[in-house]
Amino acid sequence: MMAVERSQPSAPSQYVQRKKHLPLTFRILNGLLDLVGFLFLAWLIAIAIEWAGMLMIWPEEGSAHSERMLRQELSYLNDDFASTISGSSPAIVAFEMATLVKFYVFEWTHLTQFYEWLKVAPADASKIRSSLSRVARQVSDFFQAFINTTLVFAVRVTVATLSMPAFALIGTAALIDGLVQRELRIYGGGIERAMVYHHVKPWIKPAVLSTWFFYLGIPVSIHPNLIFVPAILVFGMAIFLTSALFKKHL
Questions:
Q1: What's the pLDDT at 5?
Q2: How far apart are CA 201 and CA 122, in angstroms?
Q3: Residue 15 CB-density burial (10 A; 0-12 exposed, 13-18 middle, 19+ buried)
Q4: In whole numbers, what is the pLDDT of the chain averaged over residues?
């Protein structure tokens, strides 16, 4: 009698199984690394968009465009938001975060001092050193825009982080309401519509991540409520429909 060979799981399935059984500590570290990578990518895209705008859309403004954005972002927080959950002013929190980022990114690393040294070449400098100095002086406006955009990014990350409790509050309320509606549907013998559930569930994660990505990279100053309020509503509706239409038997 021929022995029946057990089919070995494929490599992708083995990877998925190992990933599901990762310890909680590794999952947390993996999530933190993903978050850092996401923020770093969004930061680079924001700088690239600002530089592209300086070349093609607002060449006459130069770095003044990003400086004006920074003032406008802080004015939104100062004028329309009274306090955070901790009781502190959002404008003060965002300003302190921008100051902290400016210190560690540009001052603690001596990046600003290095750039100032690079711009000024001694009289007996070599041809390569003189060429680098000339290029540094020509792109000085882009370097200033790089600083301003980084500070705008820090302010927006602070605003997006402070908006997360609103997502959690609306999500919790939508989850409870959806589960109540699900129990009423089961008790009343309602029809389960799995198609709607499978179409709505994928909107939960993008409702948060896409909002962050768009808000951090947009090259114009816009009120945070115009971005986060619709996103919170979409997030809450997705949570509600997912929990309300979740199938009793899979």
A1: 47
A2: 63
A3: exposed
A4: 83
